[in-house]
Amino acid sequence: MKAWFQKQVLAWYKIHGRQHLPWKKALSPYRVWVSEIMLQQTQVATVIPYFEKFMQSFTNIEALANANIDSVLHHWAGLGYYARGRNLHKAAKMIVEDHAGQFPNTVEELITLPGIGLSTAGAIVAQAFNKKATICDGNVKRVLSRFHCVKGALGQKDVENTLWDLAVKYTPNEFVADYTQAMMDIGATLCTRTRPDCERCPLKTRCQAYKNNLQTAFPERAKAKRLPLRQAHFLCAINSQQEILLTARPDKGIWGGLWCLPEFDSQAALESFVKGKLKSGKTLAKLPPLKHTFTHFHLTLKPLLLMHAKKLKTDTPEYKWVDTKMLKKLGVPAPIKKILHYDIIEEKMRDL
Q: What is the pLDDT of residue 313?
């Protein structure tokens, strides 16, 4: 079975595999690593333009290590899961400082770097160095779960262990880069979560789910929890010099490390801040609310606009007045960018 499985996967890849992805061009450990981090929880089509822009700005690991974190997060804005961007920057510094800029080529070394787990390390070793290493990302789990009709919901320890053992079993000793890419490609393009294209799958003749018409039953998914609804109020304060008031988010939590509009639990708290810190009694204009979904909850952003704001006193280092023209160089969450591009704000800015 193992030899047949490997042969089918590799033969399919030669003809149908995604061999022209941008990180496959000018192949290097650095490019593979960045792509693998970006591909965590994110689809290829979404990643490609971010990857290409990232490579233009940070051409090698030294450039990334020496970059300002704000610049790195600016390039990450919109990809979500911002801890990935922070960890990428931290790991680049560690590789330059602790490994003399030489990218580690073993799973054991790679998993000591922030943001790199066992499967990601395996993907980097296999793709960048063509050395035997196991990957078991979401796409691979789906293929193996259906092929063997693995019972139990993803996320359960015994299920994850079973799928990992299967992934180890099928990983060949040779042509590892092609094999691992093929498994990800089959999962992403054929063995999709919904409406899998089984007729074109190279594994269908021995796939247990296909044989028993159980494709939609595997992999089993834990019952989805109803996401709670939350709301927060955001202050969009702009002064006469066309500067906007921003605050740096803490590293942990949503939008970690990004620059954001000041956030408040209630409109009353926001208004108290405006009167107390900004010494302003001007009328606040309500901007259209914006809904955004995170992994664990839905958030309704309720922004309020204050034009001709007075500058904060110098005893508030957690806040920063930023020239609106400089926003393009800062890491700002995508929903906040949408608010800053509301027509009403741009119209009032032109009148300053």
A: 62
Angle formed at CA 318 by CA 278 and CA 84, multiple of 5 degrees: 135
Q: Could you report how far apart the first and last alpha carbons of the chain are, in Å?
A: 72
Q: What is the mean pLDDT of residues 188-196?
A: 94
Q: Which token pair is 47?
A: 């990643």
Partners of residue 305 on adjacent β-strands: 236, 285
Give the model confidence (pLDDT) of 205-254 as tens digits: 999 999 999 999 999 888 778 889 999 999 999 988 889 999 989 888 88
Rounded Cα distance between 118 and 123, Å, is: 9
pLDDT surpassing 80 at residue 47: yes
Which one from 36, 52, 109, 199 is the annotated catalytic residue?
Answer: 36
Q: Is 97 a catalytic residue?
A: no
Cα(347)–Cα(349) distance, rounded to whole angstroms?
5
